[in-house]
Write a structure and sequence with these properties.
Blueprint: H1 2-54, H2 57-62, E1 69-74, E2 80-83, H3 98-106, E3 108-114, E4 120-128, E5 134-142, H4 144-150, H5 152-182, H6 199-231, E6 236-241, E7 246-249, H7 251-257, H8 269-272, H9 276-286, E8 291-297, E9 300-311, E10 314-324, H10 326-361, H11 370-399, E11 407-410, H12 411-429, E12 432-437, E13 441-444, H13 446-462, E14 469-477, E15 480-487, H14 521-531, E16 535-540, E17 546-551
Length: about 550
């Protein structure tokens, strides 16, 4: 602060002295210039009158008397007839000089021209003589800068005196001003009683102290909120410095890299993972590029997004987000498999229909074979229609759109209706289909429950052997209604039981050619159970039949 006071005083003194010098120089210049102009005007008129009376030869007699004045005589054509300070033969035509042109035009003209150095300026005054020639008189005078330079020694001496006085005064005044300020109690500014002029500063310090304390408390609160959010994120969050060292990582990121709590800070990113994708990701981010990579790690698929971190124009590091996309990748794979399966399953009946129709339309089929071919076309069309209907049902269940409203229903009559509809099919297969149990109320959709029971019972008949049994059972328990469908058929191997609810999955692919079905029945059962908040379980042994059990939740009043 002392230095600033010194500097300010010095600048003030210097500026004051300079401005004063410039002002005085300007006043001197204006005064001298005005006097010089008046003198030149008078002299040129005196010379003109003398030249008109005594002839231009008079000018030759006075040319050497005063070297400060320059006398020039110009002919009517602009050539210089005489010049007191230069060889007129070497001088150019003066016809278009401003003062000469004005004198020829109106009898009188004047002009001012500065020298190249800007230290002097020349004043020209011209009058028209009786003989038609123009007489011009010129005189040099110092410019403002010339006057300033001529008094530079005096100005510098004045500045030196002012600087010395400023040093002495500044030292004493600074001590008086600074000592009370240095003794301020900044922790309690309101207790200071010094200059009245700095009371606003003291009040501001008190206010700022309160604001700083509030801001610190707010920042601590935000920090805790940030930690609470990031630590509970499913996504990993990693912050790196521009040198590639870890500054911060949330719980998910630490788990990904196998770090314990508060471990890893300051580690280089190569110490965390050395895979090629990981290195490419971070190097690009630290090179000020947004980058995305996928990494397979411990059987799971992660998508990593790295973004450069900047403070203004400066690159300060990188922020890395880690997304676990294993489920998404599996869902994408299932969708692809579903699309492939749909194409394959639809292709089979369409190929059969197309083939039989082509034989008939081309006249290649014998008349006695046409009814059989037509029957095959009808069967394949029915199978195709059933498959499309099932796909539509699954789509509605997936999207939960246009689904029927739920209501209180007795499960036993629904199961009895399904049993009756399948009796003819069971008899044709040689399978005994029966139902037993008691009334059990559920809250659900009649149509969707019918689909659930029908598909389970239909499979129990379809995948059974000649002379086998299939049974539907309904029970009411304290835990809710229970539907059981069992059979004595082919059974399901334990290795395949986890996949039987997948769409278009068949236990035996070759068997699907002889057994009617779309491969969607159990997928519908799964989604129907999910729609009713029910659980479904399977007990089966290959060659010894299967038992599907659906447990519905208790109905709350």
């Amino acid at each position: 602060m002392k230095q600033r006071i010194f500097v300010n005083l010095f600048i003030l003194a210097a500026v004051t002295a300079l401005l004063t010098s410039l002002f005085i120089s300007y006043l001197m210049y204006e005064s001298n210039y005005a006097l010089m102009k008046e003198q030149v005007k008078k002299d040129v008129h005196y010379l003109a009158e003398a030249a008109d009376s005594a002839g231009i030869e008079y000018l030759l007699t006075i040319a050497d008397l005063d070297e400060t004045d320059r006398i020039t005589l110009v002919n009517t054509d602009g050539t210089v007839a005489f010049d007191s300070l230069a060889d007129n033969a070497a001088m150019g035509n003066h016809l278009y000089r401003p003062e000469i042109a004005a004198a020829f035009a109106g009898g009188y003209g004047e002009a001012v021209r500065r020298s190249d150095t800007l230290e002097t300026q020349t004043y020209y005054c011209a009058v028209l003589l009786d003989n038609g020639m123009v007489l011009r008189l010129a005189n040099d005078n110092l410019s403002v800068w010339g006057i300033l330079f001529s008094t530079a020694n005096y100005i510098l001496a004045s500045l030196l005196i002012i600087f010395v006085l400023a040093l002495i005064i500044a030292k004493r005044q600074t001590k008086k001003i600074i000592e009370p300020i240095n003794s301020l109690d900044l922790d309690n500014p309101e207790h200071n009683q010094i200059y009245e002029e700095i009371h606003p500063l003291i009040n501001r310090l008190s206010k700022q102290n309160r604001q700083i304390n509030e801001q610190i408390a707010h920042l601590n609160s935000q920090k805790q909120e940030f930690l609470a959010i990031t630590e509970n994120m499913n996504e990993g969050l990693l912050i790196l410095s521009k040198e590639g060292k870890m500054l911060s990582a949330n719980l998910s990121a630490r788990r990904f890299f196998g770090l314990k709590d508060n471990e890893g800070e300051g580690k280089h990113f190569l110490e965390l993972n050395r895979s090629e994708n990981w290195q490419s990701l971070i190097y690009n981010a630290l090179d000020d590029k947004i980058c995305e990579q996928h990494i397979n790690f411990e059987g799971r698929i992660y998508r990593l997004l790295a973004t450069p971190s900047r403070r203004g124009e400066e690159l300060t590091g990188a922020v890395v987000l880690l997304f676990d996309e294993t489920e998404k990748a599996e869902a994408d794979l299932r969708r692809k498999e579903f699309s492939a399966n749909v194409s394959h399953e639809l292709k089979t009946p369409l190929t059969a229909i197309s083939g039989y129709a082509e034989l008939i339309s081309g006249g290649l089929a014998r008349p006695e074979d046409i009814p059989a071919f037509a029957s095959k076309i009808y069967e394949e069309a029915a199978r195709l229609r059933e498959m499309v209907d099932n796909i539509i049902k699954l789509s509605r269940l997936d999207e939960e759109k246009n689904l029927p409203q739920k209501e209180l229903l007795d499960l036993l009559p629904l199961a009895q209706t399904v049993c009756e509809r399948l009796q003819e099919q069971a008899a044709a297969k040689g399978v005994s289909l029966s139902i037993e149990g008691q009334s059990a109320t559920v809250y659900g959709s009649r149509q969707i429950l019918d689909e659930l029971i029908f598909n389970l019972a239909d499979n129990a008949v379809k995948y059974n052997h000649q002379g086998g049994e299939a049974k539907i059972s309904v029970a009411a328990t304290d835990q809710g209604a229970v539907l059981t469908v069992s059979d004595s058929g082919l059974g399901i191997a334990s290795a395949q039981q986890d996949r039987i609810f997948e769409r278009f999955y068949r236990i035996d692919k070759s068997h699907s050619k002889t057994t009617e079905g779309s491969g969607l029945g159990l997928s519908i059962v799964k989604y129907a159970a999910f729609y009713h908040n029910a659980t479904i379980s399977l007990q089966s042994e290959e060659g010894h039949g299967s038992t599907f059990t659906v447990r519905f939740p208790v109905i709350n009043n």
